[in-house]
Automatic annotation (TrEMBL):
Residues 22-117 form the Pyrroline-5-carboxylate reductase catalytic N-terminal domain. Residues 179-283 form the Pyrroline-5-carboxylate reductase dimerisation domain. NADP(+) binds at A89, V90, K91, P92. Its EC number is 1.5.1.2. Catalyzes the reduction of 1-pyrroline-5-carboxylate (PCA) to L-proline. The keyword Aminoacyl-tRNA synthetase does not apply. It holds the Pfam family F420_oxidored. GO terms for molecular function: pyrroline-5-carboxylate reductase activity. This is Pyrroline-5-carboxylate reductase. It comes from Neorhodopirellula pilleata. The gene is proC. Signal peptide: none annotated. Pathway: Amino-acid biosynthesis; L-proline biosynthesis; L-proline from L-glutamate 5-semialdehyde: step 1/1. GO terms for cellular component: cytoplasm. The lineage of its organism: Bacteria, Pseudomonadati, Planctomycetota, Planctomycetia, Pirellulales.
């Protein structure tokens, strides 16, 4: 039996023998860490190519059995050996260095890029084949509450799509979109956690301004964001309806909603998404 088949493990119906991540930073940690936590992958199926020694140490200390390599040719070759799935998790501007590096042999391996902005055409040209998936995940994947959109180049098989969907579904919500929608996905859910963290922080700041201890305010604000998101997801009710249900006539909430509308909160969020989408388009 070929070594790749001997190694093959099927956990949560995800079939990957070995995943090699090029780059081991924030998003690789969130995505792979989330999959390991959900037992969709085990550390001995992971190899990480990472130039920073402290980051390599983090991987090997956090996930015993995970293989780490530097970016010298021998390290790249060792990490790519037997990989059947390659995750490109470097910053968009670093991707051209990866593609120009002759130590990489992508063979016919399935390649997933999570780089913002970089289009399938660029990825296919860099990788040298078209079995390439462009994914926009987000950092809550780490805690199993990610949201991801993806699109595929022509060489991706239905079984590849199935595997990518299972991989991403193991850490949250996933949807396939057209490539023309990827900048919007990036702006809504890829960057979105940052907007939500900012809102939680601001809500807590408001509580502190009204006299609450910082920790109490932060816990109340965090749980409120979590509860509101779950209400939208689990009831299926329109967020406007749920908002109306909180607003008692002449009460406290409508006073706050009025203030938010006067300060352009809704337009500010729409403009923020437009700014992120614009930046995503610039990155290509
Ligand atoms: N941070 C986020 O929330 C999200 C990030 N992304 C995308 O994920 C990609 C990575 O972003 P982050 O993880 O945030 O960045 P990061 O800076 O935390 O991680 C990138 C890693 O790549 C390593 N690296 C640099 N040069 C390299 C090379 N030549 N070969 C291999 N590794 C190299 C760096 O040392 C670093 O650890 C980006 O393309 C970004 O657009 C996508 C969705 C969300
Ligand atoms: O800020 C960025 O460019 C990346 C892509 C989406 C989230 N973080």
């Amino acid at each position: 039996m070929p070594p790749a088949l001997i190694e093959l493990m099927t956990i949560s119906k995800l079939t990957v023998a070995k995943l090699t991540s090029v780059g081991g930073g924030q998003m690789a940690r969130a995505l792979i860490g989330g999959m390991i936590a959900k037992e969709a992958l085990s550390p001995n199926q992971i190899a990480v190519i990472e130039p920073t020694a402290s980051s390599r140490d983090w991987w090997s200390q956090t996930y015993s059995g995970c293989q780490t390599s530097g970016t010298e040719a021998s390290g790249i070759v060792a990490a790519m050996d037997n990989a059947d799935l390659v995750l490109l998790a470097v910053k968009p501007h670093v991707m051209s260095h990866v593609f120009e590096n002759e130590a990489y042999n992508f063979g016919d391996k399935l390649v997933i890029s999570i780089a913002a902005g970089l289009q399938l055409g660029t990825l296919v040209a860099g990788v040298g084949h078209d079995r390439v998936v462009r994914v926009m995940p987000n950092t809550p994947s780490l805690v199993g509450e990610g949201a991801a959109g993806f699109c595929c180049a022509d060489g991706v098989t239905p079984s590849d799509v199935d595997n990518v969907e299972k991989m991403l579904a193991s850490v949250g919500y996933v949807t396939q979109v057209s490539e023309s929608q990827m900048d919007a996905v990036t702006a809504v859910s890829g960057s979105g956690p940052a907007y939500m963290f900012l809102l939680i922080e601001a809500l807590a700041d408001g509580g502190v301004a009204e006299g609450l201890p910082r920790q109490t305010a932060l816990e109340l604000a965090t749980q409120t964001m979590l509860g509101a998101a779950k209400m939208v997801r689990d009831t299926g009710l329109h967020p406007g309806q749920l908002k109306d249900n909180v607003c008692s006539p002449g009460g406290t909430t409508i006073a706050a909603v009025r203030s938010l509308e006067q300060n352009g909160a809704r337009a500010a969020m729409i403009d923020a998404v437009a700014a992120a989408a614009r930046r995503s388009r610039e990155l290509k």
